[in-house]
């Protein structure tokens, strides 16, 4: 069995070995940049652990798994355009470092580099794997659309928020786990269980990500604490808070969001005060834990011995306990 | 044998029958819009004629051929962003009618809708067809990058210009013809000949498109006459003109391009005057005709009886003789 660290190394090596059409160098510079500035490679690592559940030979899965990472980074480049985000992972976003047109076009080519990776899936399961990927890719676009729509909405329910992150984030975790399992030789029942495992893991990941914006360690996590509050970003925390707030608390929250000019620290502090009154941190942590618990329940049903499941358990646990 | 008109109808019907994930309606409105505002469906029609060369049963090729049209329209949506183009086919471009973010995201989903179409290729040739498509898709991105780079360059050679349009335009015609032929059952030699046929046709098409901007009938062609001159767009005409111009003529051309404020009609007239002095119209028409002649030479070598080749000859001829 491979460790997460082994698998991450395989993925990083595969990313370095991606082949490019370099006739117009400028096209690929942003691609190489975004792929080089790190991230945890969670999706391909999840795919490879899922493959390794069923097979000791994961070589065939490495390039398709890398396609998941390329696709994910394609969405980051274009999402950062849409969000006018200047910084990602403490470095300038592609459209900030280059320009809008370069970010559109270099993003585009990444979609086809991802395809190139999926076309290297073993022929016996090419169609199955590509369909799982492509369905998720369309759903991620739908999720991003809901995200845009919700940013303009005054109030959304936590169910609407969860459906949005399901599409925008969780389905790609789900597809990653399912794709790895298919290449590893899982039967339909087990690969469907892996899909559901990944989906639940994806929910937990996103809720944890929302929590870390406020309660994470700035230096380790690499984001300004409370950046989501400063930018009025819809997160599980704020959606839930507005849902359970008293009239007075809701009024105070809306006042903070309406401010055109403000001291960031004061705004963050005032919003967090209300979160604390409403117990939002615990509610969010409990929900993330619920998703991981559901994921573990699904994992129990998968027809391989428990010893093989250790890395998947470790990965899921690291998502809710992680501080980096 | 099917006529171009039959095949265009099949494609239009397939476009209307595309299935969408409609959970976020706003995502697909621009997709349906750009796909509904016409165009000649040249790429899918070329694919279907190429298929029909080898087989009387073209049903299996209709959805993959439609994927070529969806992909082509994806590039139009994103290219129009990059070119700041307000109008396409006499109607507002997607980013003008909606906004930048919507054009980025709705464009993105089209790339995956195109994939969805290619995944419906008959399994016996799925990998082969998808590889041909995806190679072309990456080359189209490279071509668009060269186009952006060249817009900023003071002087480019006509060879550089032709390489750019080869990647940006001709390879998709080439891939279309090859994909159709593969699904129709052509052997490797014939499908390679079809690729070259399509590539040459694509060159002729783009040069003719450059000519039509100036010498086409505005009402029929749906563009402002001389729009490329007004916007200083690099075309075969201007690239060739600068290459063969005298020092004085080149100076006059550069003066026109440098104008910040100008009367459009005067600028167009002055540039066309120099084109006429340099015989640019004939040079360009001759080159387009050369490409079509080369295409016909390739068509001769394809191992099917001449009767079956009629529609392909008609399509190629319509590209250089067309006035609509």
The CATH class designation of chain A is Mainly Alpha
DSSP, total strands of chain A: 2
Compute the average pLDDT of chain A: 94
Biggest protein-protein contact in the assembly: A-B, 40 and 39 residues
CATH topology of chain A: Farnesyl Diphosphate Synthase
Task: Give the uncertain stretches of chain A in residue-range form.
Answer: none
What proportion strand of chain A? under 5%
Q: What count of helical segments of chain A does DSSP give?
A: 16
Shape type of chain A:
globular
In the CATH hierarchy, the architecture of chain A is Orthogonal Bundle
Characterize the largest beta sheet of chain A: strand count, sense, and whether it forms a barrel: 2 strands, antiparallel
Structural class of chain A: mainly alpha
Please give the order of strands in the largest beta sheet of chain A: 1-2
Helix amount of chain A? over 70%
| Cα Rg of chain A | 20 Å
Q: H/E series of chain A, N to C?
A: HHHHEEHHHHHHHHHHHH
Descriptive account of the structure:
Two copies of one chain form a homodimer. In chain A, helix 2 crosses helix 6, helix 4 packs parallel to helix 7 and helix 9 packs antiparallel against helix 15. The first copy, chain A, has 16 helices and two strands. Helix content of chain A is 75%, strand content 1%. Chain A has a single domain, classed as Orthogonal Bundle (Farnesyl Diphosphate Synthase). Chain A is an all-alpha fold. In chain A, strands 1-2 form a two-stranded antiparallel ribbon. The longest helix of chain A has 28 residues. Chains A and B meet through helix 4, helix 6 and helix 7 of A and helix 4, helix 6 and helix 7 of B.
């Amino acid at each position: 069995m491979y460790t997460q660290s082994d698998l991450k190394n395989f993925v990083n090596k595969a990313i370095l070995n991606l082949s490019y059409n370099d006739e117009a160098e400028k096209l690929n510079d942003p691609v190489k940049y975004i792929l080089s500035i790190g991230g945890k490679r969670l999706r391909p690592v999840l795919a490879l652990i899922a493959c390794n559940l069923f097979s000791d030979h994961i070589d065939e899965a490495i390039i398709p798994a890398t396609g998941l990472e390329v696709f994910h980074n394609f969405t980051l480049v274009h999402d950062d355009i849409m969000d006018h985000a200047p910084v990602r992972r403490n470095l300038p976003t592609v459209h900030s470092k280059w320009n809008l047109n370069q970010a559109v076009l270099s993003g585009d080519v990444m979609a086809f580099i991802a395809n190139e990776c999926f076309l290297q899936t073993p022929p016996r399961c090419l169609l199955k794997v590509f369909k799982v990927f492509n369905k998720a890719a369309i759903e991620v676009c739908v999720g991003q659309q809901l995200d845009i729509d919700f940013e303009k909405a005054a109030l959304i329910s936590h169910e609407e928020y969860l459906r949005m992150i399901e599409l925008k984030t969780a389905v790609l975790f789900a597809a990653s786990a399912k794709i790895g399992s298919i290449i590893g030789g899982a039967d339909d029942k087990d690969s469907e269980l892996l899909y559901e495992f990944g989906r639940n893991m994806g929910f937990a990941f996103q809720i944890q990500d929302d929590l870390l914006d406020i309660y994470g360690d700035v230096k380790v996590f690499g984001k300004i604490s409370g950046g989501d509050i400063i930018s009025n970003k819809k997160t599980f925390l704020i959606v839930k808070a507005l849902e359970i707030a008293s009239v007075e608390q809701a009024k105070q929250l809306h006042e903070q969001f309406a401010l055109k000019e403000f001291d960031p620290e004061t705004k963050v502090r005032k919003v967090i005060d209300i979160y604390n009154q409403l117990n939002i941190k615990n509610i969010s942590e409990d929900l993330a834990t619920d998703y991981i618990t559901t994921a573990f329940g699904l994992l129990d049903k998968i027809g391989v011995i428990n010893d093989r499941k250790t890395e998947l358990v470790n990965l899921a646990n690291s998502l809710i306990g992680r501080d980096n």
